[in-house]
Amino acid sequence: QQMVNTEIRLIIFFAAKDGEGLYSQQKQDQELTVAQIMTSKGQMMEERVNLMHMMKLSIKVLLQSALSLGRSLDADHAPLQQFFVVLEHCLKHGLRVKKSFIGQNKSFFGSSELVEKLCPEASDIATSVRNLPELKTAVGRGRAWLYLALMQKKLADYLKVLVDNKNLLSEFYEPEALMMEEEGTVIVGLLVGLNVLDANLCLKGEDLDSQVGVIDFSLYIKDVQDLDGGKEHERITDVLDQKNYVEELNRHLSCTVGDLQTKIDGLEKTNSKLQEELSAATDRICSLQEEQQQLREQNELIREKSEKSVEITKQDTKQLKQERKAHLELEKELELQIGMKTEMEIAMKLLEKDTHEKQDTLVALRQQLEEVKAINLQMFHKVQNAESSLQRKNEVITSFEEKTNQVTSSMKQMEDRYKGISMEKG
Questions:
Q1: What is the 8-class DSSP label of residue 220?
Q2: Does the predicted model carry a pTM greater than 0.70?
Q3: What SS3 class is residue 31?
Q4: pLDDT category, 231, cuts 50, 70, 90?
């Protein structure tokens, strides 16, 4: 019974929260001059606790339904769809709003891209999500990223990486957000139990950009009818009636917000056109004022010049006479310089002729010197040849003299022998 009471309180909170939050958020996104509404720490803490309890309920219902179906789930499974809706609410809690030219963007896909930098295993998911042609918005890409992470059974691991790096996560979330507090770590621990499930989710044909994330509380209170007593049943029916009323109010508010958006768009266009015309007119006025100021300054300058020109003309006549005299003197000096220049040119031509003649004589002398050098070389070679031939002849003569000396000595020896023989015979 206490569990049912907590479920009923959560249903009342989220039903009112969905209606008020949708209207306030859409009104905040569309109004031209809107004040930023900062929730207090107490409200943020209450929202964190409620979201954590809601996540516990959704995971419990999802696991119970999956065990009855054999742990294999597809995209049409209602508890799985509601699980993604609750998880999206948890990831959007305290998310910083990024403003652009189109409007305000509140999506958790930017924070999920951090996983790609911190965990290289998640790069395949991010690239596949970016390459899907059906997804046009960051909200759709974030939902597709959750689908693929659950199919890989890495959803808890990837979110744990984000929770462990809160210094990087602070760029996307407020300090009191669910992902920045202890409730985020609790939810990451609860998501580990989903690794026992086998999810077969097909992203093709799914309109993830325009899906409305509304929590269906009927899934979490379907067992209340078995309780004793009719008061609890009446309270639940009252809560369901309130929920249906809030949903109808949300639809009506969404229609009114759409009409207001169209009116605001028209006003923004007319306002932008008027601002452009106003800026163009102000620029034109400024340019005309500048031109007027320039014309006034030019008029004053012309007047001053005309007054000065009258005084200057009198002085110019005297200066002209002096300049004429100086001009005549300069002409005379110029004639003298021209005569001196002609004489210098004649002298330069004569010098050039002399230099040419001297160069010709130098060339002839150089040729004669080369010829004398050649003759000297020839004579030197001939002398060397003659000396070498004389040296050879001297060597031959010395050899002949040695031979003659040897012959004479041999003849003397022969004579001596002949004399000795003749004496022996006699």
A1: G
A2: no
A3: coil
A4: low
